[in-house]
Amino acid sequence: MTRISDMSEDELIALFAPRLPETDATILGSGDDSAVLAVDGDLVVSADMLVEDRHFRRAWSTGADVGWRAAMQNLADIDAMGAVPTALEVCLSAPGDTDVEFVLGLADGLREACEPHGVGVVGGDLSGGSEIVVAVTAIGETHGTEPVTRADAEVGDIIAVAGELGAARAGLALLEAGRRDAPEAIKLFLRPSPRIGAGLEAALHGATAMMDLSDGLARDGARMARASQVRLAVESAAIPIHEAAQFTGQVLGEDALGWAIGGGEDHHMLACFPRQSAVPAGWHVIGRVEDGEPGLVIDGERPGEAGWDHFR
Amino acid sequence: MTRISDMSEDELIALFAPRLPETDATILGSGDDSAVLAVDGDLVVSADMLVEDRHFRRAWSTGADVGWRAAMQNLADIDAMGAVPTALEVCLSAPGDTDVEFVLGLADGLREACEPHGVGVVGGDLSGGSEIVVAVTAIGETHGTEPVTRADAEVGDIIAVAGELGAARAGLALLEAGRRDAPEAIKLFLRPSPRIGAGLEAALHGATAMMDLSDGLARDGARMARASQVRLAVESAAIPIHEAAQFTGQVLGEDALGWAIGGGEDHHMLACFPRQSAVPAGWHVIGRVEDGEPGLVIDGERPGEAGWDHFR
Fold first, then answer.
1. What is the ipTM of this complex?
2. pTM of the model
3. A8 touches chain B (CB under 8 A)
4. CA–CA separation, A209 vs A157, rounded Å?
5. How far apart are the C-alpha atoms of B132 and B19, rounded to whole Å?
6. Under an 8 A CB cutoff, do B142 and A42 touch?
7. Which pLDDT does position A8 carry in this prediction?
8. Shortest CA gap A251–chain B (Å)
9. Which residues in chain A are closer than 8 Å to B130, comparing Cβ atoms?
């Protein structure tokens, strides 16, 4: 193993930078004081950080897993506005005894997540530190639609999600139990795989409100409900449960629906549409926006009251 | 003292966010998945991080000092392209026992540095961590000029700096010596104060190459020389030494010129201009671009050979 303290910053960057993804929007790439990008439309910006032993564990995640997740959760935030991601800035601090392979793996994971979407890493910073911290800022642009916030859901709207839920939380449950016998769920916990582009699709279909599910349907749905001052009424039977979560539920003898409602980090889009016919093909209708005290209800009850609270 | 672990993240954000600066470019501010900004011209992006005990010490710097510095070094990177800064994304990780006042002070320092320039903090992330890490991405836009890189200095150009040098390094020397008797230098170390806008001014005057002096004239000048494949020939007698550095030199019995050459973190602009008459008023001409082996020479010698190496 080579530790990063065995090389100079310039040497590390010389290995790291060529592995990073590129974007066609680049006018001037990394290496100067700033990068320069061409932008159409309005600029959409978001930032998230991953801190070792709080957001990931090196015992579970490779560098590439962490890079993938750092990229994907930020791409989902841009997509959740109905915008198109263009570029990332990536800051990394790490202890001197960090394996160089972990750091280079991080670049690989960023590339694997970004390249299919034409997103580039256009700059960032590397620093020493006592723990690994990855701070990513994602930049995107609107493509002819207004940004879709979480605050404009309207009574009568149809609520839908773009993907099947619960796999990431199921994968975490397996890892916490020290088991590896449902590898698909573990993979989806380590490398969440929302369909980037679903958000733009929703915007083009007239979505009134949207966000990505980073903290789970119960919590994020309640946020959307409060921001929009409406009641999100969800039917539990309509919630799409990921096959990997169902399988994990059988393996561990747990309720996969609970993971689909309370589990976070799937990063699929949650959106409201003005009518049934506006919901894009492949999305799952899970309920309807109602008048009433702002909040999310499942089968008429707040998830906390219904016993989902332990997943929070 | 109230520790940040005494409050919820929502409570902390409710205190933190109102202190942050705003920008007129905001279409949608923080609180949704992403912020949305109006941009003209091309997008200019840069990121930098500050890690506790590597880039600052809590014994020396208040939260506001750290916020100021995090903002200012990023604003300087945008300015160094001849662009205009618009917005910051700020990620902060901190231990649970961090004083809330430090965190709120950070927001104040960000505001104090940004507000005069109309720059807003439009989003970011807060996380727990074992040490304080501040990762800032700065976003700006070109204003009718091409981005000025560090790679286009040409033989015959005039080299100039936008401010007087050495004060930040002098302030560090005082703090390291446990002395406080040149407070202006200490202030300029804790709160570097380059003139933001000098970079745009240089671009409008036809600057061929530019960067901000974050690692000092010797190191950054050599970087510009290598990027442009030219020799930067600087006259030591022409280097403007900050009054606070000169005073500190007298106090500590040290050579202020050494700080002006080898000391970093002043963040003043270093730029090359096609002729003497193009140099903006108030800038200090320090030399000329020559043909020859790429590098920076002072009075014909590499700074390392001339004995500045111990400042590196």
1. 0.92
2. 0.93
3. no
4. 9
5. 19
6. no
7. 87
8. 33
9. 130-131
